[in-house]
Write a structure and sequence with these properties.
The chain folds into two domains: about 210 residues, Rossmann fold; about 160 residues, Rossmann fold, CATH 3.40.50. Helices cover about 25% and strands about 30% of the residues. The chain contains eight helices and 19 strands. It has a six-stranded mixed sheet, sandwiched between helices. It has a five-stranded parallel sheet with strand order 11-19-18-14-15, covered by helices on one side. The chain is globular, with a radius of gyration of 21 Å. This is Phosphoribosyl transferase.
Length: about 400
């Protein structure tokens, strides 16, 4: 077993809505030399399971904090792939006035003009922003950037500079659950305001500072492995395929139009919710009392969350991720087990599924944005055989 000696001292200076920080985060260690720490959200629905209503409520809370500082006007809400896609979509859903939504993506889509920029500290640095169908990017007054946490604001600075060259805005707002921007990083934001002659405001639930120390880490990538397969807990795992009709699709790969990858307005958001309510009737949970998992995949987080919200049952929700986190099977550490798999969308990209075997789920609904050959699912099916899950529903949207 791998043991890590690390310490993270937190000082919260602002708690805008008087929330309990312990309800929102835990701290883990990433297998990423650029940034070793990771604040694992308990309610984001990314690395560990939560209730759908708790994830959706994050958007409502951030909008509440926004309304304390800003008056909604018009513009675009932009969130960052992949961890921020769902929270940004939820913020957009609860924002008043004329706002559109767009999230960055690691997908390369031909025939769409992209605004490319970097997330320098990330395990996957390149982002695409398919902005050419966004009316409010040109006409709106404000850009709202949304992510789960902001530490240096470098990614936001990179994107603001790119947008400002095309469509200068009077104001930019950076929204997050956690804000750690201090000192020199804050000075850079202030200087950018002067350089661009604009306002850049931070909105957050918690603001503070932290010191992360990691000692005695003598590990290399080849030593940090996913959990070893043991004898199958469930050799007779039942596999069921469900095809949904999400109405509108884009491109040869048939991306769902209303994920936010290609832009979304308020009318389209209402249509998305109506479509999910209609299609959720095709998802039959056999035992309403048993624990059921709705599992999103990579950037495809918000729509699976909506299905979890609209379906009846004892449902938990989270997603696969590209983020490589070190797992330690200890009670006081959030990431207890890790399974590595190839992306269901891009074969050469590694994905991870955390803690799937640490809870006694009876059934799982795995949500896939693109219809793939059934062979693609063999690897993840083998992972589910290591769990308590008796029935796996592969939901092709």
């Amino acid at each position: 077993m791998t043991y890590l000696n690390f310490n993270c001292d937190l000082e919260i200076k602002e708690n805008v809505l008087g929330l309990n920080l312990e309800d929102f985060l835990e701290i883990a260690v990433r297998n990423n030399e650029k940034r070793r720490f990771l604040f694992v959200s308990k309610v984001l629905g990314k690395h560990i399971a939560c209730r759908a209503k708790d994830m959706d409520n994050l958007g409502k809370l951030i909008v509440k904090a926004y309304n304390k500082k800003r008056n909604p006007s018009s513009g675009v809400v932009i969130s960052f792939a992949e961890t921020g896609t769902a929270i940004g979509h939820s913020v957009f859903n609860y924002m008043e006035n004329d706002y559109e939504f767009l999230h960055t993506t690691r997908e390369n889509v031909e025939a769409f003009e992209s605004l490319d920029f970097l997330e320098e500290h990330s395990h996957a640095t390149n982002h695409n922003l398919y902005f050419n169908k966004m009316k409010n990017l040109e006409d709106g007054q404000e850009i709202i950037l949304v992510d789960d946490e902001v530490t240096t604001a470098n990614t936001c600075i990179n994107l603001i500079k790119k947008i400002h060259k095309l469509y200068p805005k009077e104001r930019y707002t950076i929204c997050s659950i956690l804000n750690w921007v201090e000192g020199e990083n804050l000075k850079r934001i202030k200087q950018l305001e002067k350089d661009l002659n604009c306002s850049i405001e931070f909105v957050y639930l918690f603001k503070g500072e932290f010191e992360f120390k990691l000692n005695d880490l003598n590990l290399s990538d080849d030593k940090i492995k996913n959990d070893k397969f043991v004898e199958d807990k469930n050799e007779n795992l039942q596999i069921n395929y469900i095809n949904l009709d999400m109405d509108d699709y884009i491109g040869e790969k048939k991306y769902i139009k209303y994920t936010g990858r290609f832009g979304l307005n308020k009318i389209e958001q209402r249509k998305l919710k109506d479509t999910v309510k209609r299609e959720s009737k095709k998802l039959n949970i056999e035992d309403k009392n048993a624990e059921v998992l709705f599992l999103g995949t990579e950037e495809f987080m918000y729509i699976p969350m909506l299905f979890a919200k609209y379906c009846q049952g004892n449902i938990y929700y989270y997603s696969t991720t590209r983020s490589p986190i070190i797992n330690i099977d200890k009670n006081d550490y959030p990431i207890k087990s890790k399974f590595e798999l190839n992306s269901l969308y891009n074969k050469n990209v590694k994905n991870y599924l955390y803690n799937i075997d640490k809870k006694d789920y009876n059934e799982c609904f795995l949500f896939i944005e693109l219809n793939e050959d059934k062979k693609v699912f063999e690897e993840i099916i083998n992972i589910f055989k290591q769990t308590s899950i008796k029935k796996l529903n592969i939901v092709c949207c």
